[in-house]
Amino acid sequence: MTFSRTLLLLLTALVMVPAGVADAGRKPKPEHQIKFATLAPEGSTWMNTMHTIDEEVRAKTENRVGFKFYPGGVQGDEKDVLRKIRNGQLHAGGFTGFGLGAILPEVRVHELPYLFESYEELDYVREKTGDHFVKAFAEKGYIHLGWTDVGFVYVMSQEPIRSPEDMQAAKMWVWAGDPLATMFYDAFDVSPIPLSSPDVLTSLQTGIINGFYGPPLAVIALQWYTRVSYLSNAPVTLGMGGVMVSKKGLRGISAADIATLKEISGRHLRELALKTRIQNDEAMEELRKEGIKIVEFTDAERQVFIDRGRAAWGDGVGKLYSQEILDRIKAVLAEYRAR
Predict the structure, then answer these.
(1) Which helix or strand (DSSP H or E) is residue 295 part of?
(2) What is the pLDDT of residues 228-252, one digit of tens each?
(3) Is residue 25 part of a domain?
(4) Within-domain flag for 1
(5) What whole-number distance in Å separates Cα of residue 315 and Cα of residue 328?
């Protein structure tokens, strides 16, 4: 499916599909229904993959296990979803690094500013360290069904940003309660405006903010790009994500069916990560076609951002992650680059 076709389906879904009922009335209720919420809108690549997972899980378990979906943020921001999972109202969710970090703060070490320069670096680090984080999530009461890539994250704004001073002059958004993003802004002496993710578009429309950060595919899916004019072509971080289900939410499901759920989810989520990478590239081109101006950096200008961002890594030690895990990630990355 081409990007244009995907975008058309997405926009149609946003207008015509009542939130939270996209999968209602079409499938018989499974014996064990996993209630799943995400910010990803119906019709998006992410939700299409979740529907595929649901169909295969239902088939392989003879409808003993299946999902009920709440897409598009209808259950609230990611912290709202986690609270509802703890209360038993929901069982699972698709999360960005923000939500994953609310469960396991140290996982945000993957999203340090200017850490990764390519997807290949991320894949290598994930291969070498992923088991540590999956085990740590399990200790927190969650089963990790698979990683997803959000994509390289760019700053977009109403006025061009190519220096720290430009960013200081903008009214930048920060995801309310996100310690890693706050750490990044502190490094640039920026006082951002905290908002939940569902409030960003309205705040752009009313002028409360005039700048934000995000990967190309997501800012198109969420329509944020329609309220700004510039994209600064120096990606801040490589955004991560993942699908999590609480152990409590799987009570009563056999070990064999849980194993089936994990295998099917892991396989399709790996495919989703690859699709997302391709579609983020296509989304960048779509932004150009839509009139977004790309702010290019000289090597010196880019290095200012890299130096400031990397200097902030130590600020998260003891707050989000340990020095040990930071050193481990840096060592594995250096090992890859040496190869």
Answers:
(1) strand 293-295
(2) 999 999 999 999 999 999 999 999 9
(3) yes
(4) no
(5) 17
- Region label for 76, one of left (φ > 0), alpha (ψ between -120 and 50) or beta (otherwise): left
Domain boundaries, position 113: 9-338
3-state helix vs strand vs coil in the chain, percent to 5: 55, 20, 25
Q: Residue 250: phi, psi to the nearest 5? A: -105, 10
Q: Running DSSP on this structure, what letter comes out for residue 317?
A: B
d(CA 309, CA 113): 5
Q: What is the pTM of this model?
A: 0.87
pLDDT tens-place string over residues 114-148 = 999 999 999 999 999 999 999 999 999 999 999 99
Provide the domain count of the chain: 1
Selection from 270, 239, 198 nearest residue 49 by Cα: 270
CATH number of the structural domain spanning residue 20? 3.40.190.170
pLDDT tens-digit readout, 20-68: 444 444 689 999 999 999 999 899 889 999 999 999 999 999 999 999 9
Burial degree of 179 (CB within 10 A; 0-12, 13-18, 19+): middle
